[in-house]
Design a protein that fits this description.
Number of strands: 9
Strand content: 15-25%
CATH class: Alpha Beta
CATH superfamily: Alpha/Beta hydrolase fold, catalytic domain
CATH architecture: 3-Layer(aba) Sandwich
Structural class: alpha/beta
Distance between the termini: 34 Å
Order of helices and strands: EEEHEEHEHEHHHHHHHEEHH
């Protein structure tokens, strides 16, 4: 793997496929790694595409080196994507994101819509329940987010994060019988010493319980109003997703004036790129060929 050195972060990434092909940047989620996209890329290996697959901050060998950038707020993850593209001299690209990567992808579309040819997001909608209160079922599914916002939860997670990661994989995709090899492919990326504090940072900042980093004040100010997404978007929704419940992503169309399509994936949980990689490859092909 390679390292792109940006102003605030050294970003680990893989550069795969056709060097002169259309760039596709794929962003993994939590808790996963860039290995999440391997099978999707295998299905697209004859499509003459260039795949840029980074580890998000806190994962793998990606390392935040500037104290003024020490946060995992969405604006930070978003700026990392733009800085990576700049470091690789990529002007425009198709952006694909899952979970944390999906929230990051929406934010890239807010800050730099001119850089994106299309957006493909998985599992995590732009607005949960169109900005309404979560249902009781969704509140229960988000137990870990509330827990990480307490001091007791932070201490428990910091003392032994591995059981949390493995429990999440088992419960978020209840119909997926992943193999030991599958979760083992992600596990090395969870050894980054910055991951645990960044997980806490991500979920606390999301609910206003942690400050943002000075390096991202301007970007965050543009994201906070939740403006409309000015990029055509395909959204993949697993109907067996047990963390972002399918009802949470209904009725999003008005937020995407350039076009939005929600594709339901029957029997699929929270990790569709791992569970049904051929279907996700088809979504990417659809985005590439869309007018």
């Amino acid at each position: 793997m390679s390292i792109a050195k940006t102003a605030h972060v050294d970003i680990e990434y893989e550069d795969r496929g056709a060097p002169s092909g259309q760039p596709v940047i794929l962003l993994h989620g939590f808790p996963d790694s860039l290995r999440a996209w391997d099978k999707v890329i295998d299905h697209l290996k004859h499509d003459r595409l260039r795949f840029i697959v980074p580890h998000l901050r806190g994962f793998g060998a990606t390392h935040v080196k500037n104290p003024d950038a020490m946060s995992c707020q969405t604006a930070a993850l978003t700026q990392d994507v733009l800085d990576l593209a700049d470091a690789l001299n990529i002007k425009t690209f198709l952006l694909v994101g899952h979970d944390w990567g999906a929230r990051t992808a929406y934010s890239v579309a807010v800050l730099a819509p001119q850089r994106l040819t299309h957006l493909v997001t998985l599992s995590t909608p732009y607005l949960m329940f169109q900005g309404k209160r979560e249902s009781p079922e969704q509140v229960r599914a988000y137990w870990y987010q509330w827990y990480f916002n307490t001091e007791r939860g932070r201490q428990a997670f910091e003392s032994d994060p591995a059981p949390f990661y493995e429990y999440i994989w088992r419960t978020w995709s209840p119909e997926w019988n992943f193999t030991p090899e599958e979760i083992a492919s992600a596990r090395p990326a969870w050894n980054n010493p910055q991951l645990v504090p960044f997980v806490i940072s991500y979920y606390r900042h999301r609910y206003g319980n942690a400050p943002g980093a000075p390096a991202y004040t301007q970007q965050q100010a543009k994201l906070d109003p939740m403006p409309k997404i000015d990029v055509a978007t395909l959204f993949g929704c697993g109907l067996a997703d047990a963390v972002n419940l399918p009802a949470s992503s209904e009725g999003q169309d008005n937020w995407f004036p350039r076009g939005y399509e929600r594709i339901e994936l029957a029997g699929v949980g929270h990790f569709p790129q791992r569970e049904v990689p051929a279907s996700i490859a088809q979504l990417i092909r659809h985005a590439i060929t869309a007018p």
